[in-house]
Design goal:
The protein is 37% helix and 24% strand. The chain is of the alpha+beta class. The strands form three sheets. It has a six-stranded mixed sheet, with no helix packed on it. A four-stranded antiparallel sheet has the order 4-7-10-9, with no helix packed on it.
Length: 400
């Protein structure tokens, strides 16, 4: 035990002999009293009337929200301001020998007050009076301002859901011009070290810039370029739409005798209308800069679906028309082209002599044959229409 205490006693005696000391609460209290006595927080710090240089960086933590329909972006992060105020400098030797840093409330000293120039809600200054600043003995002040920063951001949904968005958060310090303060972006990009990835959006690049306006005050702009993650939309939106496009065509294959053609085509059309409603709820109502290409695609799908209903009705009229009415010559040629020739070629069916037309010495065409030919023509026509519609959409998306 004596062997352990003796070296400690010798160390303390040596430190006392060398004059090494440490600050305590009394030293900090006295320091705060000394630097704040006569300090006027309404006066900005300056040396000889020169502008106050303020270094600014921004650390992003998470993308809280981005709403295309509301035109809103919410970014969680923190500003860090660094400037010098010589009124708050001191000599560490006078306060315990090693008191080189301390903290003060922002309500007690001058701090830059940022105002959002494109707020989503009401305009207000950032920061709270109970926040703390770190003060160094040479007068340099470091102020970290964490918050959730909300701004307006008009979305360009032309290529939705394969779109990318660029949003800017713009700030300025009211009451001060370039002769009073100079803002300096210490880092030209947003610090993403603490950033947590968003499930729907991937941030591609960022920038932090300072610009002087014609009114001679400076603005600070944080720009975020992000790209939508498309896996969810491909699986939950595009693939079901493509599948509905495919099953629409089955209406021309369903037997006429089932009586389900009209109901089937209307049901699929309503399903497409539901998807169009879902997309419209997610997108802004404005028409600028452009309406989503997917909206146009679904609109064309609905037009094609309505065309299928008309085609089904016309086809049914052909099927159930009585043989009392003769088939016009143009329809007989149409049926031979789209139905009878294919039937004889592929099915090798035997045509009974009773079906031979005594006038034309050719196979007699019935209204049911006309209906079958009309179904085949419509099936081919609408297949080409849907392929063309989808090809145009994906080609337009790929050219973004």
């Amino acid at each position: 035990m004596v062997l352990i205490i003796t070296p400690l006693v010798l160390l303390l005696v040596s430190l006392d002999y060398l004059g090494v000391a440490s600050y305590n609460v009394t030293h900090q209290t006295q320091l705060h009293t000394d630097v704040l006595t006569g300090y006027d927080r309404r006066v900005r710090p300056s040396d000889g009337g020169t502008p106050t240089l303020i270094g600014i960086t921004f650390n992003a933590v998470s993308l809280k929200e981005f709403s295309e329909s509301e035109g809103k972006i919410a970014l969680v992060g923190a500003f860090r301001f660094v400037w010098r105020d010589t009124r708050l400098a001191w000599n560490p030797a006078s306060y315990g020998g090693d008191l080189e840093r301390t903290v003060l409330y922002v309500k007690d000293i001058w701090v830059p007050k940022l105002v959002n120039m494109n707020p989503y809600g009401s305009i207000k200054m950032l920061g709270m009076s109970e926040m703390l600043c770190e003060i160094s003995y040479d007068g340099y002040i470091s102020f970290v301002l964490p918050d959730m920063f909300e701004s307006t951001c008009d979305a360009d949904v032309t290529n939705y859901p394969f779109d990318s968005q660029t949003c800017s958060l713009i700030y300025y310090i009211p009451g001060y011009y370039t002769d009073d303060i100079n803002l300096d972006a210490s880092d030209p990009t947003i610090d993403m070290v603490l950033y947590e990835e968003n499930g729907l959006w991937k941030i591609i690049n960022t920038s932090v810039t300072v610009a002087t306006q014609v009114t001679d005050f400076q603005i600070l702009k944080l720009t975020v370029n992000m790209e939508r993650r498309t896996t969810y939309y491909i699986a939950g939106l595009l693939l079901p739409i493509l599948l509905m496009n495919s099953i629409q065509l089955l209406v021309f294959i369903i037997p006429v005798e089932s009586g389900e053609r009209i109901g089937y085509s209307i049901t699929v059309l309503l399903a497409i209308a539901v998807f169009l409603t879902i997309i419209q709820d997610k997108l802004p109502e404005s028409s600028e800069p452009n309406v989503s290409l997917l909206t146009y695609k679904l609109l064309v799908d609905m037009i094609i679906g309505c065309g299928m209903i008309f085609a089904v009705v016309i086809g049914l009229r052909f099927y159930f028309r009585t043989e009392v009415s003769p088939v016009p010559g143009c329809l007989r040629g149409f049926a031979r082209c789209f139905y009878l020739s294919c039937s004889r070629k592929h099915q090798k069916q035997t045509i009974v002599p009773a079906k031979k037309d005594p006038v034309t010495s050719s196979y007699r065409v019935t209204w049911q044959d006309v209906g079958e030919a009309f179904d085949r023509m419509c099936l081919l026509l609408f297949i080409l229409s849907l392929i063309l519609n989808n090809a145009i959409y994906f080609a337009a998306i790929s050219l973004k």
